[in-house]
Design goal:
The complex is a heterodimer. Chain A is α/β, with parallel strands linked by helices. Chain A has helices spanning 42-50, 72-77, 95-108, 123-135, 151-163, 181-197, 209-215, 233-237, 240-247; strands spanning 4-13, 16-26, 31-35, 57-62, 65-66, 80-83, 169-173, 201-205, 218-223, 226-231. Chain A folds into two domains: 1-79 and 167-252, P-loop containing nucleotide triphosphate hydrolases (Rossmann fold, 3-Layer(aba) Sandwich), CATH 3.40.50.300; 90-165, no CATH class. Chain A is built from nine helices and ten strands. Chain B has a domain at 44-282. Chain B contains 16 helices and eight strands. Chain B has helices at residues 6-20, 22-25, 43-66, 74-90, 95-117, 122-143, 201-222, 224-234, 236-240, 246-271, 282-295, 302-316, 322-328, 334-344, 352-366, 370-389, and strands at 145-146, 149-150, 158-159, 178-179, 182-183, 187-192, 195-200, 274-275. In chain B, helix 3 (43-66) crosses helix 8 (224-234), helix 4 (74-90) runs parallel beside helix 6 and helix 8 packs across helix 10 (246-271). Chain B is globular and about 65 Å long. The chains are: A alpha/beta, B mainly alpha. The interface between A and B is medium-sized, with 37 and 27 residues.
Chain lengths: 252, 399
């Protein structure tokens, strides 16, 4: 049984059946990619995992516990972190504070009223935050205003914020969308490094086949809300069904 | 010092000095000079400066840190005032229990209103708080002042009557709000040359409380809690996906700022034992928003500056009338003098709101960070000039 089990999940928006009968099992410590053409339901599926959407049918379990009906912050506290398509960071805060917040969240849970301490006096957390910034190569930018970072750096920062929480499952929603090739390759290297160093499971939603084939161990192809195939990268490349989903009936 | 870094400590010292020496700073002109009308160092006004400073500092904890714009904070001010006057009526004229009850009552009130209002954010939150405040105003103004159950004494306002019980009152104590016998109204006048300075007990009580609450606000701003509140303002989505529940954070900030407002309300009543419903009206809520934005929302000292600025305008500018203008421009030929007075006329006296509105517009357009940003820009300009003269000067960028 996988770390994340998705069973018979369906979701309907008005007249649109965004997901129907999705079954998916993500194995522990693997990198699982979910690909598919636009409108296949990839993002909807991800939103169902993190508590932003509640599926109409089916079940989602993480390490044997149901995720349905839980708030995003509860799901995160269980060990699921998410990287967004456009980096979601705290733009008004500096880089160090951005990383300190998940450190506090990990240690103190979803709410604690520590109104009379000083942020930088928490030596243990500061050390942890500095270490993760060294890992993602951003330690020299720790006093920078995070809104002024480049897009690639924002992505790194967001990863750092997720990783410092030591999540068991990292969900990545198109981590290289809109990036230049060089930034994309950097991101791939970063993800590979993360994978080597940590016990972490990753689920990636991605358009860019280059990224998918460099990272994924299993690939699920989603089309029109249902999984078409689940295979290893080698077998996916020439799969007729995948060709059909992406290119339509016409033979190219 | 006291858990503050160097920069905050110097800011804190500035506030302490300003608050304690205000009677001097605010009376820079000799008593019988023609500029004496610009003196603001009389007890009533000084008390107002400080009390509204406390109100704005508290409002800033909510608005400046979390970005939730409450349009109903005057409700807490009003609740604080009523609570204090009820203590005066029932127990004693001692201000300490009165102020404590106003803070507690405002806190409870804020908890209720905040719990409901904070389910929404942005404009919906603002409208909800506004609705609650107007509801409270209507309740205080008419509903809760019927003969059977008279909690607020309606239009007249709640005040202490001779036949009120005042169970803990003794004849040896002053018949006015006091602190263990020290009357809030007692004032020591000091005359030096042509100048006179007044030192008022009530003012100093307010000033000490301002210093304490300002210290509390610095600590809050620099604490992990304050950082979380800034995170709420910055990106709630990321906050939720970082395992944090933003609701309790915003609610805590709302209650704290409501308690500040209650404290301010209690102090208003302690200076003058009267509480009227108009204190809860939406214009009063709007005023604190203006103060905070004018001074600089999200900065530590901004709200105090904003409060001082607006209260100064309200009380000093509004007193300039045409006669005074004629005096000022008497050196000009008659026709021109009349013309200039006619031009300035709409901006002074009762027209001070117009001037204030124009200044507010200017600040919002040219100094989005408020007066504090203005000060920073000025300081930077001066520093640049200095460093141009001596290239070796320290040019460390501000923060």
């Amino acid at each position: 049984m996988g770390i994340l089990e998705i069973k018979n999940v369906g979701k309907r928006f008005g007249g649109l059946q965004a997901l129907s009968d999705v079954n998916l099992s993500v194995q522990e410590n693997s990198v699982h990619a979910i690909i598919g053409p636009n409108g296949a339901g990839k993002s909807t599926l991800l939103n169902c995992l993190v508590g932003k959407l509640i599926p109409d049918t089916g079940s989602v379990t993480f390490q044997g516990q149901s995720l349905l009906g839980r708030h995003p912050h509860e799901i995160n506290q269980m060990g699921v972190a998410r990287v967004f398509q456009t980096p979601e960071i705290f733009g008004d805060l500096d880089v160090m504070e951005n990383v300190m917040i998940p450190c506090f969240a990990r240690r103190d849970g979803s709410f604690r009223m520590h109104a009379f301490e000083t942020v930088m006096n928490e030596k243990e957390l500061v050390e942890k935050a500095e270490q993760i910034l060294i890992d993602v190569n951003m330690i020299d930018k720790r006093h920078m205003h995070s809104a002024s970072l480049s897009r690639g750096d924002k992505r790194r920062l967001e990863m750092a914020m997720c990783l410092v929480q030591e999540p068991k499952l990292l969900l990545l929603d198109e981590p290289t969308a809109g990036m230049a090739r060089a930034d994309t390759n950097n991101t791939i290297d970063l993800l590979k490094e993360i994978k080597e160093k940590r016990d972490i499971t990753m689920a990636i939603i991605e358009h860019d086949m280059h990224v998918v084939f460099s990272l994924a161990e299993r690939i699920t192809v989603l089309a029109q809300g249902t999984p078409l195939v689940e295979e290893t990268p080698e077998n996916i490349k020439g799969h007729p069904k995948v060709r059909e989903a992406y290119l339509g009936e016409a033979q190219v | 010092m006291m858990g503050l870094n160097k920069k905050d400590t110097s800011l804190f010292v500035v506030v302490i000095v300003l608050a304690l020496l205000a009677p001097f700073f605010l009376n820079p002109f000799p008593t019988d000079s023609s500029m004496a009308q610009f003196n603001a160092g009389y007890p009533d006004l000084m008390q107002r400066f400080v009390i509204f400073g406390i109100f704005a500092v508290g409002f800033n904890i909510l608005f400046g840190l979390t970005g939730y714009l409450s349009f109903g904070h005057a409700a807490f001010l009003g609740v604080g005032s009523y609570a204090a006057v009820w203590i005066f009526k029932l127990l004693t004229y001692n201000v300490l229990p009165a102020i404590m009850l106003s803070v507690i009552m405002a806190g409870i009130f804020a908890l209720l209103i905040g719990y409901v209002s904070l389910r929404r954010s942005g404009i919906y939150f603002s409208i909800l708080t506004l609705a609650f405040a107007q509801m409270s105003f209507a309740l205080a103004y008419s509903v809760l002042s019927n003969p059977k159950f008279n909690l607020t004494n309606g239009e007249t306002g709640l005040q202490v009557y001779a036949n009120d019980p005042q169970w803990l009152h003794r004849d040896s104590l002053p018949d006015l709000p006091h602190l263990f016998g020290l009357s809030m109204r007692s004032t020591y006048e000091m005359t030096v040359g042509g100048w006179s300075f007044s030192f008022n007990t009530g003012y100093y009580l307010c000033a000490v409380i301002l210093i304490l609450t300002f210290y509390l606000s610095i600590r809050l701003f620099r604490s992990p809690f304050g950082m979380m509140l800034r995170a709420v303002k910055s990106n709630q989505q990321r906050m939720n996906y970082t395992g944090l529940n933003s609701r309790p954070y915003t609610l805590a900030a709302f209650v704290i700022s409501g308690m500040y407002a209650g404290l301010a309300g209690g102090l208003l009543a302690a200076m003058d034992p009267l509480a009227g419903a108009e204190r809860m009206q939406w214009t009063a809520s709007g005023e604190v928003v203006l103060m905070t934005i004018l001074g600089g929302a999200g900065t530590l000292i901004g709200p105090i500056l904003g409060a001082g600025f607006i209260k100064y305008f309200e009380n000093i500018f509004s007193k300039i009338n045409d006669n005074i203008l004629h005096q000022w421009f008497a050196f000009m030929p008659d026709g021109i003098e009349d013309f200039i007075v006619a031009v300035i006329h709409p901006f002074i006296g009762k027209g001070w709101h117009l001037t204030l509105g124009l200044m507010f517009m200017m600040v919002v357009i040219f100094l989005p960070g408020g007066l504090v940003e203005g000060g920073q820009r000025l300081a930077r300009l001066l520093r640049r000039k200095k460093s141009d003269e001596s290239p070796s000067a320290d040019t460390k960028p501000a923060e």
